[in-house]
Amino acid sequence: MPDAIKAAYDAKLTNNILASPEYQRAQRVMGYASLEEEVKTWPILRHALAEGKSVYLPRVEGKRLAVAPVIYHEGDFVDLSPAYRGILEPKAPGIDPGQLSLILVPGLAFDREGFRIGYGGGYYDRLLEEVGDRVVSMGICYSFQMCRRLPRMSHDVPVSRMMTERGRQRILRPN
Prior knowledge:
Helices cover 23% and strands 30% of the residues. By secondary structure, it is of the alpha/beta class. It has a single domain (3-169), classed as Rossmann fold, CATH 3.40.50.10420. The chain has a 7-stranded mixed β-sheet, with helices on both faces. A 3-stranded mixed β-sheet has the order 10-9-12, with no helix packed on it. A two-stranded antiparallel ribbon has the order 4-5.
């Protein structure tokens, strides 16, 4: 995707997330340290911090994702270091993920039922299974990453909400 189009999509997606009731109500937001090709999350995380929300990032610990607070000092995220797949992770001690209000979930693709394809580690599936319905999970991606149905395994866990640059995407639940 050309840089100018990606920047425009990222800005629209950021605005859609910030305007959502799920984000507005959330006091503890878990994002992710976005890679270059992913939806840019840093503006969302900075906005959350400016509003006084607590912000967390995931850290791979064995086969699970720990949820650790970010440290933000003088306009920059500090105490982050590259780890699993070169993704920046916080070093701070983790919290119980059930204390979160909103989890922003990345994916290579999402389907209309909220299932996703990630990078194959199953980390987010285990996290979403752990928090269940206690925490809102919002898949975020570009509209061209949405498809009708993805292949899935028995351990896959869908997100509860979806957001793209076009706005909220309705999640279909089987009857």
